[in-house]
Design a protein that fits this description.
Elements lengths: L2 E5 L2 E2 L14 H6 L10 E4 L1 E2 L2 E2 L1 E2 L6 H7 L1 H5 L14 E8 L5 E3 L3 H10 L12 E5 L3 E7 L2 H9 L5 H5 L7 H10 L2 H13 L5 H12 L8 H4 E6 L4 E4 L5 E13 L5 E4 L7 H7 L7 H4 L9 E4 L3 E6 L4 E3 L5 E7 L1 E6 L2 E6 L3 E4 L6 E5 L4 E6 L1
Antiparallel strand pairs: 1-6, 1-21, 2-3, 3-7, 4-5, 7-13, 8-14, 9-12, 9-13, 10-11, 10-13, 15-16, 16-23, 17-22, 18-21, 18-23, 19-20, 19-22
The structure holds zinc ion.
Length: 377
């Protein structure tokens, strides 16, 4: 096998997009599938053990083929400390119409420790750096705001007085966060209710209201004041470093991440929450959105995340893969001519593909109005 068409699993999480009178969910429209009443949240293009794509031609899971022929598929001889050869990254189409949980992902050393102690909650020993590339306007919160701005917001709100009073004169970001994560539920509930009755302007206060409506009194609501809330324009991207708190709020995007499922959650979710662990691992360095944004590249979007993955958006310029590495791609708009070691075919909108590392020459030529999300190592 060289380049294989994939059938990719869809995740119908509750926060996904539902069909409205005038619009189908992005993912169902992309796949040409009937939307029904389901929420369409994520499309997984990869070989993750909890959701591997399947090779259409043979019906075999990609993860199984990779384990059987790691050299051919990944260009890797099996390593001693990783007995199960795996695709090092996962590409997703992610569409949310409601907020996802407040979370962070551990760095490599922490992930290894957590996996050893709590293998159920932390299913692998890997870190999970991730990049989100917006396809529509995409609202999110990530990284701590400057300390002064948060304290000013607290000082301006009688509702938040109990929070301010519990802190030292010059509190740290850790103190501010600790209060929210450790306070009693009725106190948080009361503060959130009162805050929403006060008059506050700006995107932070607006987000606070949105979260309070959906998760009244949840500690995650207060992260609307702790973290930067911002909106990416289509084509803009954000890189989420290890241990940086974040939540995707609304929009459509492409997400690429290291092959890991390690998530430490703080709130806004019925899933497993570990506030203590979050407090002990969070990176309390303030990072304005500009520092989280991926610098714009000349031409098509192109971002490399260490040894873990490289994410490209192929739109105008033909792309020739220049290393023997595995790649997956999905055609989001238009069509492309693909040439793999002399074999040619056309990849049309909605199709996803895996290209083995063993292909010597791989070239993708987009036609007009074409958009292809491409990930490789
Ligand atoms: Zn995340």
């Amino acid at each position: 096998m060289f380049v294989e068409k994939l059938s990719c699993p869809v995740r119908h999480y509750a926060w996904g997009e539902r069909a409205t009178a005038d619009r189908s969910p992005y993912i169902s429209a992309l796949l040409g599938a009937e939307a029904g009443d389901l929420p369409w949240a994520e499309l997984w293009i990869g070989a993750h053990p909890s959701g591997s794509a399947v090779v259409k031609r043979t019906g075999e899971p990609l993860a199984k083929l990779i384990q059987e022929q790691p050299m051919w598929m990944l260009g890797l001889a099996p390593q001693e400390n990783s007995p199960q050869p795996a695709l090092p990254f996962l590409l997703k189409v992610l569409c949310c119409s409601e907020p996802l949980s407040i979370q962070s992902h551990p760095d490599k050393a922490t992930a290894a420790k957590l996996h050893a102690i709590l293998p159920k909650e932390f299913p692998d020993a890997n870190h999970k750096p991730e990049v989100l590339l917006a396809l529509s306007e995409f609202r999110m919160m990530a990284g701590f705001r400057p300390l002064k701005e948060i304290v000013t917001d607290l000082d301006d709100s009688p509702a938040l007085r109990p929070w301010r009073k519990a802190l030292s004169e010059e509190p740290t970001l850790e103190e501010l966060t600790r209060f929210v994560l450790e306070a009693d539920a009725p106190l948080l509930q009361n503060m959130a209710n009162l805050y929403c009755q006060e008059e506050h302007t700006g995107i932070q206060a607006e987000q606070f209201h949105i979260l309070q409506e959906k998760y009244p009194g949840d500690c995650g609501v207060f992260f609307a004041l702790l973290l930067n809330v911002f909106i990416l324009k289509p084509g803009e991207a954000v890189f989420v470093h290890a241990n940086v708190p974040h939540a995707y709020l609304e929009g459509e995007g492409i997400e690429c991440m290291a092959n890991s499922d390690n998530v430490i959650r703080a709130g806004l979710t019925p899933k497993y929450i570990n506030r203590k662990l979050l407090l002990s691992t969070l990176d309390f360095t303030p990072r304005p959105p500009s520092l989280l944004r991926v610098p714009a590249s000349q031409g098509d979007f192109d971002f490399t995340c260490g040894d873990d993955f490289r994410l490209r958006l192929i739109q105008t310029t033909p792309y020739t893969r220049d290393k023997n590495v595995p790649a997956v791609f999905i055609v989001l708009e238009g069509r492309a001519n693909v040439e793999a070691d002399g074999k040619r075919f056309v990849a049309v909108k909605g199709t996803a593909w895996f290209a083995t590392a063993s292909i010597r020459k791989l070239r993708v030529t987009p036609s007009t109005n074409t958009k292809i999300a491409w990930a490789e190592t």
